[in-house]
Amino acid sequence: MSADPVPADPDVGSALNLDAFNRALIESVGVGIAIVECDGLKVLFQNKRFEQLFGSPANDITLDQLMQVPDLSGLEPGAVETCEISVKQKRRPVTLAAHFSVHEDDGRHVYMVEMHNITKVKELEYMIESYAKMVEKNERALRREKERAERLLLNIMPRTVYEELKTFGVTTPQRFESASVLMLDFVDFTEMAVSKDPLALISELNDIFTGFDRIVEQFGCERLKTIGDAYVAVSGIPEATPDHAQNIARTALLFRRFIRQRNATREEKWRCRIGIASGPMIGSIVGIQKYVYDIFGPAMDLAARMEQHAEPMEILLPEATADHIRGEFRLEPVAAREVKGFGTLDLFKLVGGDEELGVTLI
C-alpha cells in the first residue's frame, strides 16, 4: 500500500512567490537601490540598476568606496537625506539624486539608498537657464539699441516733438508767436579744414559742440542743428517762455566765454561769429525717410544775416531783439546797416550782462 502524497503547504508557496515577486519588482525598476549597514556602510544588497551606475562592486565593498556619502549621523528613521552626485557611465557624465533613509532589518539598522537618474532634468534645466540668459541678453541689446535710437532722434528734434512722434507717428507743425534763435559760425573754418589734420580738427569741433550743448541745456534752450561748423540754438521752441531772448543772450555770452577760456590753454585758437534774432517762427519735422526738425520764419533768416555781419568774437542782434533784453544786458549800438531782405536796420553788439554775475559752465 503506497502512502498518500503530502499536500503542498499553501502558505509556504505563496511566501516564496511573494519574495520572488518583490525581487523581480526591485530589479525591474529604473531606480538604483541598495541596502547598506549603518555601521561600517557595508553594502548588503544592490539591484542591477545600482550595479550599472557604479559598476559591479566586489563583495564586502562599502558605500563610501563607491561615492561620497553625506553626513548621515543625524538621520532619524522616517526622515530622508537627499543630495546630488555625479558619476561617469561609459565616459558620459550622469547626475544622480541620492535619497538616504533609515530602516530596521532583523534588529539592525540599515540605510535604504535610492539613486534617481536626473541627467535629463538637469540638461533641461541647463537649456532653460541658457535660453533665459539668451533672452535677457537680447532684451538688454534691444534696450540699448532703443536708447541709442532715442538719443539720435533727440539730437535732431526737441524731446516734446520726439514724444509726439513716438506716440502718434506724426507731428503737427507749430507756430510760435515769439521765440529767439542763435546762429554761430567759426571764422576761417574752411581754411582750417584744408590745412589741419581732419581727425584732430573734428575732434576739437566735437569737443566744442559738446560744451555748447551743456550751455544750451543750462539755460533751457534747444540745440536745433549743426551744419558743418555752424551751430543753431533756439529758445521758446517748442516750449514757449517769455524769457526766450534773455536765455539766448546768456547762451551766446557763455558760448563766447567758453571759446575764450578754451583758447587760453590750447594751441588752436578758435574764433566765432554769433547772430541773434527774435520773432514768430514755425517749427516742424520735414522729410520722410530722414527726419529733421527745422524752424522757418523771418527771425531764422535775420539771425543768419546777423551772424554774417558780425565781426570775429562779436555777438550781433537787431533792435527788436535788443528791446527784449535792454536793461539786463550791456549793449553797444552799431551804425545802421543794410541787411539783405530786411532793409536798413539798427544793430547792436551784445557785450556783456549777467555773465559777470557768476554764471559758470557746467
Automatic annotation (TrEMBL):
Enzyme class, UniProt record, top EC level: lyase
One GO BP: response to oxygen levels
Name of one Pfam family that matches: Guanylate_cyc
GO CC, one annotated term: guanylate cyclase complex, soluble
Gene Ontology terms, MF aspect: adenylate cyclase activity; guanylate cyclase activity; nitric oxide binding; nucleotide binding; oxygen sensor activity
Highest taxon of source: Bacteria
Coiled coil stretches, renumbered: 128-155
Keyword terms, alphabetized: cGMP biosynthesis, Coiled coil, Nucleotide-binding
Limits of the Guanylate cyclase domain: 180-307
SMART domains named in the record: CYCc (SM00044)
Gene3D superfamilies found in the cross-reference section: 6.10.250.780, Nucleotide cyclase
Enzyme Commission number: 4.6.1.2
Protein name in the entry: guanylate cyclase
Species of origin: Microbaculum marinisediminis
